[in-house]
Amino acid sequence: MTDPAEFDADGRLISARYGDVYFAGDGSGETHHVFLNGNDLPRRFEQADGTFVVAETGFGTGRNFLLTADEFMRRAPAGGRLVYVSIEQDVLDTETLARVHARLADAHHERAAQLRTALAGEVRSRIEFDGGRVVLCLLRGDVEAVLGAWTFEADAWFLDGFAPAKNPAMWTPSVLREVSRRTRPGGTFATYSAAGAVRRALEDGGFAVERADGFGGKREMLRGTLPNSGADAAPVVAPGTVQVSGAGIAGAAVAHAFAERGVCVTVVDPVGVASGASGIPAAVVRPRLWATDHGAVPDAEIVANAFRYTTAWLEWLASPRFRRCGALLVASEDTAARDARRTENPATSDLVEWVDAERAHDLSGLPVAPHGAVWIPDAGVLDVGGLVRDLLEHPNIEVRTGAPSNDPDLRVFATGTVGRLAGDLVTTPPVRGQAIALAGSDALAKLRTVLCTTGYLAPPDAEGLSWLGSTYDRLDESTEPRPDDDARVLEHFGARGALAEALDGARVERRFVGVRWTTSDRIPALGSLSGDRDVPTMVSLAHGSRGAVTAPWTAEVLTTRAFGEPAPAAPDHLRRLSAEVAIRRRRAAQHR
Prior knowledge:
This protein is an alpha/beta fold. Helices cover 30% and strands 23% of the residues. The strands form 6 sheets. Strands 17, 18, 19, 23, 24, 25, 26, 27 and 28 form a 9-stranded mixed sheet that branches. It starts with 5 loop residues before the first strand and ends with a helix. The relative contact order is 0.11.
């Protein structure tokens, strides 16, 4: 969404949406007085030898960001790194930004031009400046919704939305409580507003608030500090070297995420790249659509968030391994009413829609859903093995079959066989799955979308093969293909009318077998492992059959946490996914 802002006769930029002024003059004086000096940032930047996080409500013209980045780069030591988190619902168009940025001093023009270039297309959430020492995380959306969907802690806050009377949603008590909860001990805030309701809400959140001289015609402003309970919180120091155990989709995604940030990564896998279940040439990327009469299931929210991230990430990679062909979840006569209700699940309602038989035929190319279907337009088919190999072809990544002799700054376990590598984290038993590739059917050649029942059928790939999957055999670690299992795979579509007839005329060209590990609640386990370890350790484990969806997302979550950046996951989701919590749940179950 873009704010239809306009310049008035005096050259001031006015928000048409809120009827308020973005800034007076070039805005530089206000930024320095209220936000930089109000948070004591010139002095604090001189001591910032790790990651320093500034968070802002209201990106506006980007003026605050540009001035803060300049101040940081002039004052911070060489090891310092600025992560600037800004929440904005209405991003200005680049033409308007160019007029505003032209008023700034010449020192800011290079970063301003880079910023406008990055924002010229689809707005990205993460943009690097100054060789990665400055990172802008621009989080789009309603401020309360964004704060609920991302996890981070700030060292300083710029509360810079339009005036409370003009944009009250930016200043509600619940938003300001979230500001307090997202502040590190000893962290600060500053704002031009001196409204009593704002002061009281911040005090209720734990800030020690004081009034200070305002800027220009304003008599007062507010600033404050969140008291320490003890020593200052240690700065986040990004790792320079990382060792990743596992060269499947989880390990490759983690390695690539660190490598893209300039980290030297060693990937260790004794049996090679994409040698296990991650070698599958056709996995379906789609959200989980569980729903109950009581609303969204938490796991559905987690997988839906992973799906949103992963599909955007695949598009950003421009990966030829992903075909965004959409997917139809075909309903039966018995499940049609229930499946139609599933599209109303608030966790996934923005991702799906219910379509009737005619629409399903138009989408898929075959009369496959006489009772209707759930349509997921952003779903698709991913050549996981090919993607893994592509991700590991990075100049900052070395793949080895044996561990290097030197200890890394950080060790990451990203494997399926977690019980054997992570020691005290034990998952449920292995699950064997066999998929088959079909050819020789004129009807299948017409298929344009993924079809899902109790299994899945992908449209033909470049070789003309339609992959169909899969079996689900617990306590079975065999990786040998079994021709006798072909019939079990075909049974997923055995009573599906025209589709069953199409399958009858097809022949099996290939088979793929993979063994997956998962947790008891079928969501991955991730995060840091505490305890007596010689090297800090993180894990991204047990993705099961949903690794194509969850592994890229969890890789970004782990990497952002290691770098002190906002993680694309809600705090309650991170708690549910926590590896430490998974260990405690497993131990409790073992002692019952």
